[in-house]
Structure formats: structure tokens, C-alpha cells
């Protein structure tokens, strides 16, 4: 009865010690820092809001790109095969496991064991002493009186959540990157078609100039000008072909595999329609953008590390306990109870300033994390403001470029007619051809810029972030 009581007392002491664990937390109280940006977007960039339009974060990418089946198919392939996204997912798994390891240190490790020991008696009588033990053991369990283990666990949890937000940010960037790469490829295809048409036209002009030169109706200057224009068109075609191939290579890298043959047809840039999403307020961007949330979780981790560093200055208490049975005869092993309980207290006295330096390092890291968080917020604000500025001006630029392209096309048609009748010379024709080709190129670039602006605005407003959070 006495042995049972002592065993119960020792286990009760261990339980009481466990209840004491975590009774103090030396980490600074965390509060989300105020966003170091204006409360609203610049007035010049802020568009008129559409009352019924959903916020970008709540609009899945499948709906945003609903008008382009090819882009949707490419995004689905990229989400399955992109290697960068795969690494990001594995980093999340790794951070989750590291958090579980850190959190497990807050709890005692209980082991079951069976041991036996035989040794000769010290008096030289030839007698063999035997000791057999069986039971449960708790070895070197540290009481978390000052929150060191708790803060280490919270730091690991925040690091895991930051990694998860980083994976979400990588996913949103991949979606936007694939859409932009397909738009660039489509623009390169259209430029290649325009270059081929231009070369065919200039080769026709060269043949006509050569015929006129042979019959004495054109000068050597006219022939040389036509040859120069045809050569320039061939060079432009080669450059357009190279740009098209490079754009496809970039898209293949993002998709993570060669482009399948059965993809839907691409939408011409002129026919592409992407929805406009409302900008909302800057505070809404902070809530929805995963990169901002990632920076905040990193700040939380640095904040918790300060508490862990401070706790190292105070005493640490470790406990070791066991409860089970022991006997000198293996046959009587489970008849006699046995227990042990030991504690150790270590108080830092002299460490040459190591613990204080660790606190200073933790505080410096927290300051760095704060500056990085604020920089992330400012970068997010600037990206949205830039995208809104493009949204406000690209429509007007596109309208003006279309007007110029139409006018240059009409001028070229008139000059070609006059040249065929011998009224205009080859220099006028060459100038009209160059101007019309340049206007068509510029129009194509503005159409691409407008489409990319819609993609960028959707991305920087956290497009699809709410849907991503549900699926992660």
C-alpha cells in the first residue's frame, strides 16, 4: 500500500508539473502593423466601380477567363505540371512536418521498456546479481514555465502558414503567367502573319519596280528603294518568327510539358474580352493578397522568436520519471512495483553574453520582418495603382492607334493607286508602306498591352484568392 501511494504521489507531482508548463509568455503582444499606404487609390487611376461586379478575390480564374477556352486549358495543364508550383507544394508539406516536430517538444515523450542486467557480486563470492525492470519512462521533459517551447511552436506554425500563403501566391502568379504567355504567343502569331503579308506586298512592289526599270520606266534609285524595302521586310519576318518561337518556349516552360495538339483555337486579340473587376479599397487588397499574408505570418514568426530568446535567460526545469515493476528474478518481474522521479534546474549564470545577443538577434529579425511586411504592402499598392493607371488610359490609346492605323492603310492604298498610274514615285510608296506597317505593329502592341493589363489587374487584386484558400 505504501509503495502504491508513493507511486501515485510521484505521478501526481509530474501531472502538477505539466499543468505549470506554459504559464508565462515573454513574446511581445502582436498587433498587425498599420499599412504604410494611402487609404484609397490615386484619383487619376481609380475607375468607376460596377455595382454588381464581384471582387477579384472572389472571382475564380475559370470565370475570369471564361471567354478563352485555350487559356483555361493551358492553366489547367500548368497547375498539374508546373515544377515551380510542385516545389511550392512540397515546401508546404515540409513546413507542416517541421511545425509538428516543434510542437511535439511541448509534450513529454513516454516510452515503454523492458531491461535486464546481470553482474558478478563485488565480494568475489561468484554470486551473480540480476535486476529486471519493466515499465513506462518520461525522460528529460522540460517544463515550459516561460513559454520558450510554446513560442518555438508558434514560430513554426507561423512559418508553416507563411509557406502555405507563399504557395497560394505562386499559384496565382502561375495562373496569370500562363495567361500572359498565351497572349504574348498570340500577339507574336499575329505579328508573324502581318510580317508575311508585308513581305508579300513588298516583293510584288519589287517585281513591278524591276519590270519598270528593265523597260526604262523607273530609275536605279526606284529599284534600289524597292530592294531595300523587300530586304527590310524579310528581316522583320525572321525577327517575328524568332519572337514567336521564343514566346511558345516560354509558354511550354510554364505549362510544364509540350503543348498538346488538341488545344482549343486561340482568340484573336481584337476579339478577346476579359471582364473588368472593381478595385475596392487598399485594405481589401491586404486581406486578399497571399503575398501580403505571407509577409505577415513571417512577422508573427519573428515576434514569437523574441519570446523564445527571452525565455532562455530564465531557469530551465527538466523532469525524468518512471513507473513500473522490478525484480531480481525474471519470474517475479510483474509482482513488485517500482518508480523513480528526478528533476533538474539549470540557471544561466555566465554565458559571455550569448543569451542577450540571441535576444538582440531576434529583435533585429523582427525589425527586418516588419520592414519586409511594410515593403510588401507598398509594393502591392503600387502594382494595383499601376494597373489601374493602365486601365484608365489604354482604351484611349487603343482608340487613337486604331484611327492612325486606318488612316495609314487608306494612305497606302491611295499611294499604291497613284504609283500604278505613274503619279507617285517609289519613295512615296516606300514611305507609305513603312508608315502603314509601323501603325499596324503599334496597334497590335496596344491590343496586347490592354489584354495584359486586364490580366495584371486581376492578379494584383488577388484574383481568385478566396477560391484558392478553400482548395488549399
UniProtKB/TrEMBL annotation:
It comes from the Bacteria. One of its GO terms (cellular component) is plasma membrane. It is found in: Cell membrane. Residues 1-26 form the signal peptide. Keywords: Coiled coil, Lipoprotein, Membrane, Palmitate, Signal, Transmembrane, Transmembrane beta strand. Pfam families: OEP. GO terms for molecular function: efflux transmembrane transporter activity. It is a lipid-anchor. InterPro entries: MdtP/NodT-like, OMP_efflux. Residues 230-257 form a coiled coil. Belongs to the outer membrane factor (OMF) (TC 1.B.17) family. This is Multidrug efflux system outer membrane protein. It comes from Roseateles asaccharophilus.
